[in-house]
Sequence to fold (457 residues):
Amino acid sequence: MDRISTGIIVLDQILGGGIPKGSTILLAGRPGTGKTILAHQMMFQNADIDNKVLYVTTLSEPQIKIMKFQQEFSFFDINKVQKSIIYKDLGGVLRKEGPTQAIKLIDNYLKEYQPKMIFIDTIKTFVDIIPNSMEFREFITDLSVRLTTWGCTTILLGEYSEEDIENRPESAIADGIIYLYGTEEKRQQKRYLRVLKMRGTNHSNGEAVFKISGDGLNVYPRLNSTVMEQDITQYSERVSSGVPKLDQLMGGGIPKASTTLVTGPSGSGKTMLALSFALAGIKSGIVTVFVSLEENPLQIINNFIQIGQDIRPYIEAGILHILYVSPVELDVDEHVFRIQELAREVGAERLIIDSISSFEVGMIDKVKYTDYIWGLTDYFKSHGVSVLLTHEMHDASTMSALTKHGVSFVADNLLLLVFKEEGKYLNRYLRVVKMRGSGHSTELKELIIDKTGVSIL
Fold:
């Protein structure tokens, strides 16, 4: 099946390669969800002198107003306007002569310009003008047949909620439905996209987050939590944690391409262990990505300096990459996508996230949070990347709940850090709680953090 690109790589992937050529697609959502922007991205992506695109407005926004706002986006090309992208208005005909004459006028446009794509913004105007349900069904079927006969790929824009879509006749005649929606939150608005149906296409299910920027819609795919194929031989290799005695406790080090979770209360040494793991890698020339959700890059550099290590040469050489996002600005879907992209671009073999507790705070749906951690770690394990995650444990008095929401089960290796009061001192201790497929010590060992770094007594 021939496909038409939406102009957004990730959305094309979600659609299984793009929109099927010659199909009728309903682009639905409430006002302000981004339908017009997405429509224009698709138009400017596909329009050229041999493939004209027709954009027909009804009674929504005037054409001059639409173009005024759309020209602020980077995809807008004024040289294509009224040459390969033709704007036409049906508003006057609809008001004075009704939908029958409007269809005839569309016929004339099709004959005159012979477009490869046609956008009708908005189809809901016809719904308001033809209140009788049976008459509207006949009208929309007639319109669809005419456009299909001309071989046009048709995009119908409509202001509908998801409940409206289920009962609308235009949903039945549409080959595909792309639904845009958003959630209003005090901190920030989050926008989502879902493909409700797409005939002849094995499209991806579930919601995908998108943001609107100067480039238009930026879509971030839903992280798939399905198990990926992995190379079992990679687990026979060991990598250093950066703490020699910890490597001994773990039976020779951390199994390569496994996930290690370090959990403990605030100040117990989680970040210092993460720094040691990073340092052991970069000193061996292993490309490492350090994702911080709590400390900015300058603070991380200073942390290394405090233990006598200047990591700036490694950053300049491209061996260490620090990615920082404030938890206040964190959008988990976007951030996970950026982590994957960065790791793939630089060829990372180690990934450190300090800490996943910020992911938990950034997601209202805690079941989705667990799925994301599972999908994230599984993705990197399948690509041979050794992952270390830190996690804030709020109740250190019991081992019955080392992490919230069952996150500990995604880890292959689990390290527990605790405090113990001994006289007037508060000492740190470490225990290797589990290691899948490997023997290890379970003995509680004292953890020392000083100006030379981390060591174990």
Observations:
- The chain has a mean pLDDT of 87.
- DSSP finds 16 helices and 22 strands in the chain.
- The first strand starts at residue 3 and ends at 4.
- The CA atoms of residues 74 and 215 lie 5 Å apart.
